Amino acid sequence: MGFDAHVLKVMISTPGDTTDEVEAVSKALHGWNGSRAEGAQTVLLPRFWKADAVPTLNASGGQSVINSQLVDDADIVVALFDSRLGQATDNAVSGTAEEIERAAEGGKPVHVYFSDEPIDRKNADYAELGRLQKFREELQGKGLLGVYADLNDLAYKVRDAIESDVNGLGLGAPSVVRKGEHALPRLSVVRETNAKGTTDDYVVIENKSTAITAEELRIDLQEWQNSVFRQNDDPFSLPPLHKIRWPAAFSMGDATQINATLTWTEPSGPQSVELPVTYS
Length: 280
Hints:
It is a single chain. The chain has helices at 19-40, 49-52, 62-71, 95-105, 126-140, 151-169; strands spanning 6-13, 42-47, 76-81, 110-115, 146-148, 185-193, 199-207, 214-220, 228-229, 236-238, 243-249, 257-266, 269-278. By secondary structure, it is an alpha/beta fold. The protein folds into two domains: 6-169, 3-Layer(aba) Sandwich (Rossmann fold), CATH 3.40.50; 185-278, Immunoglobulin-like. The strands form three sheets. Strands 2-1-3-4-5 form a five-stranded parallel sheet, sandwiched between helices. α1 packs parallel to α6 (151-169). The two termini are 40 Å apart. 30% of the residues are buried. The mean pLDDT is 84.
């Protein structure tokens, strides 16, 4: 059964060294569509110059083509940087930099993320890294920048940013809240095998409610005192059907089951729950 929806064009702006990041963000946008499009009456349409720009000759150059076809037509811009700033244009230090500036001047929501992953020192281009760092410092005076630890972290943060945009634009249909319904944050701990054959631990929290956002959410995992759980101490919001995870490290002496205390606020008032968390 079909449904009427707003279509938001989300341009992914980035230099040429972020193929994996572009794929992760595209999947995140499609994932948002799968869980939120019908309820929010909004569909996200990823746009990337390699796939969506039409080859056209222009006396002003290729960047002008991208500007007119994608930047000016976008509703939201997500900019990604790994280890390169990109090739300079006639008007800016790089094509991505020009797209960011043009979109911001046009009043569009612009979200900029920088990689926080370790640098490959053997193959690093330090001159390019220097250009990128200088540009990053310049941008810091213009707004809040995002960082990502890995592709999953990037995907979660982009989904949260888009959710904020949809709410800010007032496009989403109001959710139907049933009497007595609450946010349902749930926490789990998972272990995954990485590409190197070793294992990584993650703390995962998901709001299973379809209508209520968990505001000012805090997690208390103090029973695992010998563990490392790298979550920002600041409270955060978790919209309906959203999931976030953080890297963690647990010692061999940790118990296989603990209790996690979650506290948050919602329209009905402050909430708190203590949940058993199985570690496997």
